[in-house]
Every structure is written in C-alpha cells, then in structure tokens.
Automatic annotation (TrEMBL):
Domain named Glycoside hydrolase 35 catalytic: residues: 36-378
Top-level division of the source organism's lineage: Bacteria
Coiled coil: none
Full protein name: Beta-galactosidase
Organism: Streptomyces vinaceusdrappus
InterPro entries recorded: GH, Gly_Hdrlase_35_cat, Glycoside_Hdrlase_35
Region annotation Disordered: where it falls in the sequence: 1-34
Transmembrane regions: none
Membership in a protein family: Belongs to the glycosyl hydrolase 35 family.
Length: 791
C-alpha cells in the first residue's frame, strides 16, 4: 500500500500584504498567505488569458460567452503599449483597441478581469509591446530612470481614464492588475510601477507580478504569480522534449520555473525568489497550449494540458491561470509587423499573424478537446474550491527520485482536518508512463484518521490523471468517506442535494459510506468493517443513487468519463441545471445557445423543461435521468474551387538569426517564389451568422493566405490541418477569393517538429502544395424552454 501522512496546516499569515479591497467594498476580495477570498468565501479563480486587441471587437461577446462556458471566471488580458501609442503622444483606444468596451462587456457577462498593463508586456509582441519610438529616446527602459518613467506616466494615466468606474471598489470587474512582465532583477522598479499606477488612479485589490526565474519581487508589494508549460517554442530545435518542462508533471512544493523566458535573460537566476511562506500559490501562465516558432513547432495534445493543470492543482495552486485560453491574431494594421521576430532582436521568429497557441479555444474560436477536458476540472473547482483552498499539499512517504523517474507513481494529497482530495498523475508528454498494478492508497489525515482508498487494489492505467475525494460532504447530513471516482459538481435538484461524480477510466467506481446509509439505485452494495461499499458497474446517465441516512436524503450521479467530458452546469431557464452536449453550450439570458461542430449534435438537460423550442430541434427522448433533444446537423456547405496558379516553388534558403542564432522564417522576397493556389468561395457558404472554417491540408514548410493582396493568415506547418475562420472576412473573401502561397523547406534549416508528424514534414523538401480545401460550417443554435418536465 502506498502511504502518506498529512499534518495540520499552520495558520495562514494575514494582514501582512498591502492587498485586498478597502473597507466597506461590496463583495470584497482579500488575500492571505494561503488563499484568496471573495465576498467572505475562499475562492480559487479560474483565469483564462484572451487578448482583446488581437481579436475583432465584433467577436468579443460571443467568444467571452464561450470562455465563461469553459468554467473561466477571471479574464486575463494584456495591454500592449505599441498598439495604444504607436505614434508618440497619439493614443488609440478605439475599435479593437477599446479596452473600456471590452472590460464593460466582461462586467455584463459576470467575468472578473485581471489587466496586465505593462509597460513591457511580452506576449510574443514586437519589442515586448514597447513602441518603436522608445528606441529613439535617451532613457533606460524597465528601470527607474526618470526619463523612462516620464514616458510611462501619461500612458498609465490614459489607461486609468479608459478604465474609470470599472475597478472593483467602484463595483466594476477589475480585481487584479499586473505591472511589467518577467522582470526578475529590478524590485524597486516594480514597486515604482505600482505606485505610479495607483497615483494615476488605477486601483485593484490584487497587484501582481510574474515570479518565475527566481524573480526579485519587492516584499509586501506585489503577489507573485507562476507558470508552467507542457512544451517550449523558445527552446532550441533539438529533438525530443524540452527537459525543464518535465517538472510540471510531478507533485512538488516548488513553484518556480526557471525555463519560462530563459532565452530572454542574459544570465541564469541566482536569487531564491519570493518567500513562499508569505504568499498563496497562484499561477497566471499554465500552458493552455504552446505557440509555434519557426525553428521549434511543438504539438500539444489535450492530455498534456489537463494533466499539467491537475498536477499544479494537486501541488497546492489556489489560482489556476491559463495562457493562452483563447488563441488570437497578431495585429497587421500598424506601421510595422507586430510579432516577436529576429528582426527585432528576439531569439525566435513567430508567424506574422497567427497566435493560435493550440489553445482550448482557437484563433477563430474553434473548440478544442482541451476545452471540454479542462471544463471538467473547473466544475470541480467551482463546486469544491472553497474547501480545497484551505488544504495544503502533502506528499507521500515515497516520492519519485528525479525528473527521470518513470516508475514511481506520482500522487499527493491536499487535506485539512478530516477531509482531503487525493491527486494522481500518470501522464507526461512524449514518454509513455507505465500502468501501475495493485495500487491502494493509505492516507493518514491531519485529524489522525487513516483511510485506505479504494477497498481493493486497482490498476492505475497509463495516462490516467484524476482527483478522488476523502470525507466529502454530500448534504443532508451524509458524508462520502471516500470514492474511487472524481467529484465534478453539486447542486440541488427536486429539493434534494445532488453530487455528480465521474468514473475514472479503467478503475471501478466505488464509494464508501457509513454503515447506516441505505442505497437505492443501479449499484452493487456490500458491507465491510462498518462501511457501506457501493460499486457502480455501469456509470452513465442512468447511474443515479438515492442515499438515505439518519438525517435525510441525498443523491449521487456517477457519470462515465465520456459523459463527464460533455457535462456543463449552468443557470438557465430560471434554475440551475446539468447540461450534456458534445458541442460548446452556454446560457445567454433566457436562452440556451450552442455552436454546432459535432456530427450528431444534441443537448440533454437535468432537470429538464417540458420542451425546448428552436430551429432544428427534434423530439425529446429519455437518456437515463436526463432528457435529450436531437439537433439539426451543421449543413453541408458548397465547397470552394481550388486552382493551381503556380506549381513550382523554391525553398527559402536556410538562414539563422536572432540572439540565439536559430533558424529564421522566410523573408518577404521568398514568398515571390512560393507555389500559388487560388480559392474561390461560394457566396452561399457564408449565409447565416455562424463561423465558417476553411480547412486546408498542406504539404510545405510555411504557408500564407492573402485577401486582395493583403496578408490575413499564416502558418508554420507542424502537423494539424490549417484552419482559417472566414466570418470576419466574409464580404471580401466572396468578392476576391483567397490566394494561398506555400513554400517547401530547405533541409539545411534546423527545425523541430513532433516525431509523430516528421515523415509528412520531410515530404516538404520536394513538394509545396495545398492538397485539399474544405469549408466547414459551425452554425449557432438558440433554444428557449416551455414548461417544466420530469426530474
């Protein structure tokens, strides 16, 4: 049996940080050394990064609704100085740069906001967001040089003007402000920036700075936030996994990651970083994916993202912040290209336009598998975060010996008193971890009680990553002693508390309850050592159990892993409901709305209204305790006409550049020698208001899309099909069509792609082509309800 001995946590430090809402603020936000609180309740924020200025304003509302549907309750966003003051003294906060409009929209949708105001922001932006004109000023940027501060001050004042009335103490959504980014050796400057921002009128209960790289954060001034990625485009183009990323798949009290931004530092960190005893473990950059640079093009599957997020949570995180959560596009309307590049002194060449990041929501709002898988974790946090936040990390008696240990099972417990959550991660990228047979966990809680989980040894499959509850409150005086199944959410249905669990793939779903609890429902019930053991042999929509104890009744629904990935919990049609769908689904006022991308779309509700009304809604059918309505499939669109304009192409010669002498992207002149293809898009394909994706399968090193001679999208090939959302270009693309240019690759260029796609990349040495082009509809469906049906 694997063993772990937890201990009582020490009392958190409080009142030692100059953070938190002023006295008398409604729904105050506070912070101590252990966790955050909002409106008197401990709060684990789920923060998703989405850059308003890199997405058309017309799309903001729809995309924010999708972000919220993924379980995000705190929206993180950068301001890039070079976008708002591209010409010195001329500020732009209009159109897609309208930060006030964006934050106001967040408030309307009940999303809190964290603004990252810079002035240096990075975000793979040109000069880190510094305007080009700053290079002509005699000053020392990112220091307390008065000449530099004199330029920052009016910029901060203008930001404050734009955000007036939107700060938390005014009843607005802004709860956090980050100054600078990845500045690790100028603590006095960080303190100065906070002071300047406050003097300008910028206010927030939480002031933050990035803490990685052993950053020297001014004590008692800023809350350090950390990160961790599954891969790294900023590594060299060596074969295999970026080694420093391995640590993120182990449970550890170590918060720092010296690898993030390492290629922008002139020397290795020598400090110890912030004192972890004074601050809660908070993150702002857990990898929602990874960007693609020309020289290094990682492929990031959903499990790499979700296992990392779960491991950070199991390691003690009380603020789950994802970068990026929603992909976006670099601006192309400025005087100069706006991406990080060798030409601006960076080690890496990034695409001119795309900043998709393989994020849970893509550059054009595409819903990726990571979106659904992370939502399941976020449902857990919204339901149980207040309890989890007070629980510190406890590590097992036997831990992995090193980052190369692939044989020791990775697990940990967060617990306090007589309750806890057991976390397991048996997944890491690139290297398959083994199955573990005969596993049983022995956990001694801080209260002194020892729990053996589960009742019989089980196999933990390779790739599994999960959390199991210990001492979970089910309501009505009932308690789940432990479960070999994952807690997902809880709500009240038909006057009874309902707890939703999800079976762990490959492991029997077993629940342990007190001996005096009666069980009704589809399960095998046994008794052993004064405990009622309940085994659900067929988890799913019918696996509803009614538990009756001395004090009352409660229900438990045990879903299959597949159903849990489709689960949403939302308030719609006047009450809290569970909603199952393969598609993204969200509440929008009194409507239930979906973006349809699945082959057989449907929506199931519990409790269910008497009927759903909307275009394409079929007849309701029972699906266990849910009621399911089939929906019309996305229409098959007329397809584009693909013509070859020029088949012959010449590869851009292998070049290197930047501070690390890495492979450079093709130059503008190289695109004159690319293979050229023309796409004609039928006007009828863009009827309606939903997205239309152009899905291109290419062979080549790099590709670009032009609309009437204007670059609108680009792609460094890394395996998946290239997708371009056409809705934002609808009128022009029908009038002009698209020109696609594809370059083959010079084999001398040192470029990394994932081993699984390397054979197709090798073919690009001799061929540059658009192999196929297809239009895919993503229609929007809006549903209303009539009456209440059965529960």
């Amino acid at each position: 049996m694997l063993s772990l001995h937890a201990h009582d946590p020490s009392a958190p430090l409080a009142g030692h940080l100059p953070l938190g809402s002023p006295a008398g603020t409604p729904s105050p936000v506070t912070v101590d050394s252990q966790s955050l609180s909002r409106d008197g309740r401990r709060w684990i924020p789920v923060m998703g990064e989405f850059h308003f200025s890199r997405c058309p304003a017309a799309e903001w509302r729809e995309e924010l609704l999708k972000i919220k549907a993924g379980g995000v309750d705190l929206l993180g966003t950068y301001l890039f100085w070079n976008q708002h003051e591209n010409d010195r003294g001329t500020y732009r906060f209009d159109g897609d740069l309208d930060v006030r409009g964006f934050v106001t929209l967040c408030a309307e949708l009940d999303l809190a906001v964290a603004v990252r105001i810079g002035p240096w922001s990075h975000g793979e932006c040109r000069n880190g967001g510094f305007p080009d004109w700053l290079e002509d000023v005699d000053c020392a940027p990112r220091t307390d040089d008065p000449a530099y501060l004199a330029l920052v001050a009016p910029y901060y004042r203008r930001i404050s003007h734009e955000l007036r009335g939107l700060f938390h103490e005014d009843g607005g959504p802004i709860v956090a402000v980050q100054v600078e980014n990845e500045l690790y050796d100028q603590p006095e400057h960080l303190a100065t920036l906070r002071r300047m921002a406050e003097e300008a009128g910028i206010r927030a209960p939480l002031w933050t700075a990035t803490g990685w790289g052993a950053a020297d954060i001014p004590a008692g001034t800023l809350l350090p936030l950390y990160g961790g990625y599954p891969e790294a485009f900023w590594e060299d183009a060596h074969d295999g996994w970026a080694r420093d990323m391995r640590r993120h798949y182990f449970f550890t009290p170590i918060r720092d990651d010296h690898a993030i931004g390492a290629d922008l530092r002139s020397s290795a960190p020598t400090g110890t970083g912030p004192d972890a005893r004074r601050y809660p473990y908070a993150t702002c950059e857990l990898g929602g994916g990874m960007a693609i640079a020309y020289h290094r093009r990682p492929l990031v599957p959903a499990a790499d993202i979700t296992s990392l997020a779960l491991t950070k949570l199991g390691s003690g995180s009380v603020w789950q912040g994802y970068y990026l959560y929603h992909g976006c596009s670099q601006r192309v309307d400025l005087k100069e290209p706006n991406q990080e590049s060798h030409d601006t002194g960076y080690p890496n060449d990034l695409p001119t336009v795309t900043y998709d990041f393989q994020a849970p929501l893509g550059e054009y709002g595409q819903v990726r598998p990571a979106f659904h898988a992370l939502r399941r974790q976020h449902l857990f946090l919204h339901a149980y975060g207040a309890e989890l936040a007070r629980m510190p990390l406890h590590l097992p008696d036997r831990e992995p010996a090193s980052l190369d240990d692939r044989s020791t099972l990775r697990w940990a417990v967060r617990s306090a008193g007589d309750q806890g959550f057991l976390f397991v991660n048996n997944h890491q990228p690139h290297e398959t971890l083994p199955d573990h047979d005969g596993v049983r966990f022995g956990v001694t809680l801080p209260s002194g009680r020892t729990v053996a989980v589960p009742a019989q040894p089980v196999r933990i499959p390779s790739g599994a990553h999960f959390v199991w509850p210990i001492g979970l409150d089910l309501g009505a005086g009932l308690r789940l002693e432990w479960a070999g199944a994952e807690p997902v959410t809880r709500l009240e249905v038909d006057g009874l508390p309902l707890t939703v669990l999800a079976a762990t793939d490959g492991v029997p779903a077993t629940l342990a309850l007190a001996a005096d609890v009666e069980i009704q429902g589809p399960a095998r019930v046994d008794t052993a050592e004064g405990t009622t053991l309940v085994t659900v042999t067929e988890p799913g929509t019918s696996a509803l159990l009614t538990l009756t104890g001395p004090a009352g009744r409660a229900r438990v629904l045990v879903l299959s892993p597949e159903h849990a990935l489709r689960l949403n919990r939302m308030r719609v049609f006047g009450q809290d409901r569970l909603v199952l769908s393969d598609d993204v689904v969200f509440a929008d006022g009194d409507r239930l709305r979906l973006h349809i991308a699945s082959d057989a779309p449907s929506v199931a509700l519990l409790p269910a209204p008497a009927s759903l009304v909307g275009s394409g809604v079929g007849e309701a059918v029972a699906d266990g305790v849910f009621t399911r309505w089939p929906l019309a499939r996305a229409p098959r669109l007329p397809q584009p006409v693909l013509e070859t304009v020029r088949e012959q192409a010449v590869a851009a010669p292998a070049r290197t550049g930047g501070s690390h002498d890495r492979a450079s992207a093709p130059r503008e002149a190289d695109w004159d020698k690319a293979a050229v293809f023309r796409l004609t898009v039928p006007a009828s394909a863009l009827d309606g208001d939903g997205e239309v994706l152009l899905r291109l399968r290419c062979t080549g090193d790099a590709a670009r899309a032009y609309l009437d001679g204007r670059l609108v999208a680009d792609h460094f090939w890394y395996g998946p099909d290239w997708e371009i959302g056409l809705r934002r270009f609808a009128d022009a693309v029908v009038r002009h069509g698209l020109e696609i240019r594809v370059l083959p690759r010079d084999p001398a260029a040192r470029v990394y792609v994932d081993a699984s796609v390397r054979p197709r990349f090798d073919a690009a040495v001799t061929r540059a082509a658009v192999e196929s082009a297809a239009l895919v509809a993503v229609p929007r469906v809006s549903l209303t309800a009539e009456g209440e049906g059965r529960v």
